[in-house]
Amino acid sequence: MDNREHLLIVSPSPHQHCGLTTEGMMASVLLALLPACGVAVYLFGLPALRTLSICVVTAVIVEVLWQKASGKQPSFRDGSAALTGLLVAFNLPPSSPWWLALLGSLVAIAVGKQVFGGLGHNLFNPALVARVVLLVSFPSLMTRWSAPQPGRLLADAVTAATPLGEMKSALWLSGRLPPGAGGSLTDYLLGNMAGSLGEVSFVALLAGALYLLWRRVISWHIPVSYLATVTILSGLFWLADPTRFAHPGVHLLTGGLMLGACFMATDLVTSPLTGRGMLLYGCGCGLLTLSIRLFGSYPEGVAFSILFMNATTPLIDRYLVPRPFGSPRTWGTP
Q1: Are 91 and 196 in contact (CB under 8 A)?
Q2: Averaged pLDDT, 65-92
Q3: Which of 71, 163, 173, 317 is deepest in the core (most CB within 10 A)?
Q4: Mind giving me the DSSP string for 63-129?
Q5: Contact 277, 317 (CB under 8 A)
Q6: What is the per-residue pLDDT across 84-93, written as a single tens digit (0 to 9) for each?
Q7: Closest CA to 168 of 66, 295, 264
Q8: Would you give the end-to-end CA distance of the chain in angstroms?
Q9: Does the model's pTM come out above 0.90?
Q10: 322: exposed, middle or buried (C-beta count within 10 Å: 0-12, 13-18, 19+)?
Q11: 259: exposed, middle or buried (Cβ count in 10 Å: 0-12, 13-18, 19+)
Q12: Biological process GO annotation list (predicted)?
């Protein structure tokens, strides 16, 4: 009887653990973003490294201070604060002033995360909340981009326009895309273009996303539906009028689309729970992103689209509830 006592133990589900923990998931995402960090520092030098460091350190400090002020045991071991700080840095121009990077992490942790109750309770992606707040408050600083200077750590910052910004300006002035608007897709693929720290390396971000898919930290539903929606719709517009609408490859490889689709829209806290819900969510993000890019005043729409869809997540989860196993429709009966 002693050998079978464990058979009488009753405990709540889940009875089998998938092996993923919060700490492990955060560590996996941080590891997946390391290639993009390396490319950003290679392209933009020490200013990029400074921005990354300030954002991460500030996010961790603000998290600990908030927990201490709230009477909780201060802890940052789950890695969520460091990840939020890194994503804030990825949404900033490479040569951002130190105080802008500090303010971005402060807003992300205090306003985007802790006000809602901390990890697991926030309605919106904290890093995107910080980006939008900074963009509205300091538009000139948040759109002051640096031209990449590969391998020159101490290179002087030279301002340049992003591919999407250049196209938007040309459309405002002449109603047509500038000559060579498609640019070099190879440069776009490798990240050799102006933009924020997380916008410039499709290959590095893709490598990180594939790693997360392999580790099953994220599922394919949101990235695929998001990227496919933007690609298909932009392709239809391009076929209709290539003088006003850019090639779908430009939309896919430039801006924050890859970062948003694979690392921000897939946030487990702010995205739907079911596969059908994720597909709807991803398609909504893609539709809104392309609508803002093509018809809005901003050249980029990833942040706004993801935040808007974050707000719809509770509704999506409510109306796309999985059917219980054994329900009539499961068996094919009316």
Answers
A1: yes
A2: 86
A3: 163
A4: HHHHHHHTTS----TTSHHHHHHHHHHHTS-TT--HHHHHHHHHIIIIITTGGGTSTTT-SS-HHHH
A5: yes
A6: 999 999 999 9
A7: 295
A8: 49
A9: no
A10: exposed
A11: buried
A12: electron transport chain; transmembrane transport
Query: What distance in Å separates the CA atoms of residue 197 and residue 211, rounded to the nearest whole number?
Result: 20
Q: What are 303's two structure tokens?
A: 């942040």
Contact at 8 Å (CB) between 153 and 50?
no
Whether the CB-CB separation of 110 and 57 falls below 8 Å is answered with no
Q: Bigger pLDDT: 134 or 198?
A: 134
268 is written with which tokens?
């487990």
What pLDDT score does 294 carry? 93
CA–CA dist 252, 63 (Å, integer): 34
Closest CA to 79 of 101, 49, 48, 56: 56
Give the pLDDT band (50/70/90) at residue 323: low
The whole-number pLDDT of residue 308 equals: 96
Buried b (16+ CB within 10 A) or exposed e, 146-166: bbbbeeeeebebeeebbbbbb
Which residue bears the tokens 């890695």?
79
Is 112:15 a contact under the CB 8 Å cutoff? no
